[in-house]
Amino acid sequence: MSDRVVHLGPMDRVTVQVRRHPGATLFSVLKDVFAGHGHGVPPLWRETVRRAIPPRAAAVAGPVLAARDCWIPDRIALVENLRSPDFRTLVQDLDETDPHLLAAEVAAYHATATPPGWRRLLDDPAGFLTAYRQLVEAAWTAFAPLWKEADALIDRETERIGIAVVTGGLDGLLAGLGSSLRYETGALRLPHACPTHLTDLGRRPLVMVPLASGPRAHMYGADRGDAFWIGYPVPGLGRLTGRRPRSPQPVGGVDALGAVLGEVRAEILRHLTHRPTVSDLARHLGVGVSTATYHCRQLAAAGLLHRERHGREVRLLPTERGTALTGLLAAPFPPAGR
Fold first, then answer.
1. pLDDT at 80
2. Cα(first)–Cα(last) distance of the chain, in Å?
3. What is the Cα–Cα distance from 219 to 335, expressed in whole angstroms?
4. Could you read off the pLDDT of 30-43 as tens digits, one per residue?
5. How far apart are CA 201 and CA 251, in angstroms?
6. Where are the beta strands (DSSP E) in 197-293?
7. Is the pLDDT confidence value at 63 over 90?
8. pLDDT in tens, 195-209
9. For the purposes of burial, counting CB atoms within 10 Å of the CB of 212, is it exposed (0-12), middle (13-18) or buried (19 or more)?
10. In the predicted structure, residue 230 carries a pLDDT above the cut 80
11. CB 76, CB 21: distance < 8 Å
12. CB neighbours of 66 closer than 8 A, spacing ≥ 6?
């Protein structure tokens, strides 16, 4: 459906920015706490935050966080300011919010019927904002140490995106975000039909917001005139939740192709010179056929591989674009500081 697509245009003309954003990550955690594990926040983190929130604040503001609407005011989602604010700036934004203007925005969006979760905000906007501020501050106090631990992961993700941009691998990176948005050649398909979104990127920057909350974290804002932003799980989050990292960096430098596409998809692209079947790939990677199929579909959507039928077999081959990207990123990048 066209009403769920944002057209990016030529990828070499897309302006990409990366934002370290505590508000987006905290809101992802809060949605998980109140709406039911949708972002995959680890149970220990979830319970730590839940216990820290004052019960009265949770009773007043929690129903909005539990709502499953695809739309929420940016002030409430803590993303009004996308310029990597510190937490005090986010609280100041809440303090400066006009409660009646906020209520009017909500009422205008839900003009036909107001969902039950929003009634508290509409009935007492000032009281709602006071409770929400208390909820946010208490949750951040509990979560801040975990956010700090994610610094190195976000630094590495910023480098990965930079490599993708300068080497022409942005489409491959977008195809492998692990986000609820799906990349199709030159476009991103939204998971929900939101009537206010802008269907063309135009001159807006594409703002990448790595989320240090859970492996299914997903947020986006397609209705702003100043940016189209995407919140997605920061790669490597399992290192902070007790899961082991998949594999080390190669000796002598960073695997540039793996940094752009992810380790599994990078290895698939390298192995395509052998014209494998999906079963061949699965054996080579040590994964299930369904897993190999999923990654191949993502690479095909990015225009990096295609399929050829030979009798009863379907062989996988790199496209010209896939071959060019593999060649461009064949040499490892030197580690930072050399």
1. 92
2. 48
3. 31
4. 999 998 878 889 88
5. 39
6. 206-211, 219-221, 228-233
7. yes
8. 678 889 999 999 999
9. buried
10. yes
11. no
12. 34, 35, 36, 117
Q: Which of 245, 244, 240 is nearest to 42 (CA)?
A: 240
DSSP 74-135: TTTTT-S--S---HHHHHHHHHT--HHHHHHHHHHHTSS---GGGHHHHH-HHHHHHHHHHH
8-35: b (≥16 Cβ within 10 Å) or e = beebeebebbbbbbbbbbbbbbbbbbbe
- 208 Cβ contact partners less than 8 Å away, ≥ 6 residues apart: 16, 17, 18, 19, 157, 161, 229, 230, 232
Euclidean distance between CA atoms 276 and 332, whole angstroms: 25
Q: What pLDDT score does 274 carry? A: 87
**CA distance linking residue 90 with residue 318, whole number of Å:** 46
| pLDDT tens column, 314-337 | 999 999 888 888 877 765 444 444
Q: How far apart are CA 55 and CA 143, in angstroms?
A: 17
Q: What is the mean pLDDT of the chain?
A: 86
| Chain-centre distance for alpha carbon 158 | 13
DSSP 254: B
Angle at alpha carbon of residue 237, lines to 233 and 221, rounded to 5°: 15
List domains and CATH numbers for the chain. Answer: 2-15+152-240 (no CATH), 22-150 (no CATH), 256-328 (1.10.10.10)
pLDDT given for residue 32 in this prediction: 94
User: How does pLDDT run across 83-94, given as a tens digit for each residue?
Assistant: 878 998 999 999
In three-state secondary structure terms, 38 is coil
Question: Which phi and psi (to 5°) does residue 202 adopt?
Answer: 60, -135
Q: Which amino acid is at 302?
A: A
